[in-house]
Amino acid sequence: MLKNSRFLGLVVFVFLFAMCNQKSKNESEKETILKGNLDITVDETVKPIVDDQVAVFEGTYYGAKIAVKPKSEAELINDLLNQKAKVVVTARNLTQEELSRFEKSKIKPRVTPFATDAIAFVTNKSNNDTLIALKTVLDFIQGKPDTGIKGLVFDNPNSSTVRYMKELAKVKDVPKTGVFSFKTNDEVIKFVSENDGMIGVVGVNWLSQPSPNMIDIIKKINVLSVKGLNDTKYYNPTQNDLAEVKYPLARDLFIINCQGYSGLGMGLSSFIAGDIGQRIVLKSGLLPVRTPGRKLQIRNGILKDNE
Fold first, then answer.
1. Rounded to an integer, what distance in angstroms lies between the CA atom of residue 203 and that of residue 91?
2. CATH topology (fold) of 30-116+252-288
3. Residues 6 or more apart in contact with residue 88 via CB below 8 angstroms
4. Cα of 276 vs its chain's centroid, Å
5. pTM check: above 0.90
6. Strands 250-257 and 110-124
7. What does the alpha-carbon distance between residue 115 and residue 124 come to, in Å, rounded to a whole number?
8. Pick from 281, 225, 228: which is nearest to 253 by CA?
């Protein structure tokens, strides 16, 4: 009887071991760097460029299916730290404290910079003044009087744009009056287009790549030229001024992969940082980390039409 029990236990163990191996094998076969299903959480302020990257990636590798989930920066980082999100796109790098938390969990994030983005100030088209000093905006955020600003409009209280501007102004919180917030950059742009005197704070990607329903609304706003804290001239959130490090509100974009294995997150990161991905960044109006090369065909002679 005891022998039969031992034999039965051995059979059950072998069966369970085989099932676990088969499950691991099936999971590895489901996802590689070029195929499988992946959820990627994205800072809402840079969603358009990520949508473009994913569309081309899926069109190139038909076995890949990637769902883009936009969230505020605070929500995104929280999900990443709690391992609810494995692959994210952010408008900042991880802090030393955040990296330490990953080290305690024996996770080594793969951080890949891929573009330089910009925060843009926008106003209603009726506003004839298209210049603004960054100091004026920071004074307003610090609660100083007589700045001449009627109100600032942000996308989300927990967004990367709010965090960025608070860090520049060196304040813990934005003023309780004169500051408005919505949920998306499109809502900010629409509100500013309909309300004189308001200044919207948005990711420039939403201006360079507007959705079809936003094209006419974009025509109703002005993008302001900004004078930095130590500048005497005003600069625009263009590729040229970003490349020459003149625009004062530039920020780098990163894709952070915490999958811990060679999965679709690694494939997407390599694609975005590669030649095709960098060309997509260049076309979007943002500044790529590496300028894509141009292939020139050199001919030994001139071809004549009659030849």
1. 10
2. D-Maltodextrin-Binding Protein; domain 2 (3.40.190)
3. 40, 41, 42, 43, 76, 77, 79, 80, 255, 256
4. 17
5. no
6. antiparallel
7. 28
8. 281
* Nearest-10 Cα torsion for 51, 56, 58, 62: 170
CA angle centred on 258, ends 256 and 264, rounded to 5°: 85
* 165 contacts 201 by C-beta, under 8 angstroms: yes
Q: Who's near 69: CB < 8 A, 6+ residues apart?
A: 39, 40, 41, 42, 85
Q: Is the pLDDT of residue 244 over 60?
A: yes
Question: Does residue 26 register a pLDDT over 80?
Answer: no
The pLDDT of residue 23: 40
Q: Domain 118-251 has what CATH class?
A: alpha beta
Condensed to tens digits (0 to 9), the pLDDT of residues 56-104 reads: 999 999 999 999 999 999 999 999 999 999 999 999 999 999 999 999 8
Same fold, 30-116+252-288 and 118-251: yes
Buried b (16+ CB within 10 A) or exposed e, 158-179: bbbbbbbbeebbeeeebeeebb
- How far is Cα 270 from Cα 264, in angstroms, rounded to an integer? 10
301 band by pLDDT with thresholds 50, 70 and 90:
low
Domain boundaries, the chain: 30-116+252-288, 118-251
What pLDDT is stored for residue 128 in this prediction?
84
Q: Which long-range contacts (CB under 8 A, 24 or more apart) does 52-57 make?
A: 52/209, 52/280, 52/284, 53/268, 53/271, 53/272, 53/277, 53/280, 54/268, 56/276, 56/277, 56/280, 57/267, 57/268, 57/271
- pLDDT-based confidence at 211, cuts 50/70/90? confident
User: Would you say 44 and 185 are in contact if contact means Cβ atoms under 8 Å apart?
Assistant: yes
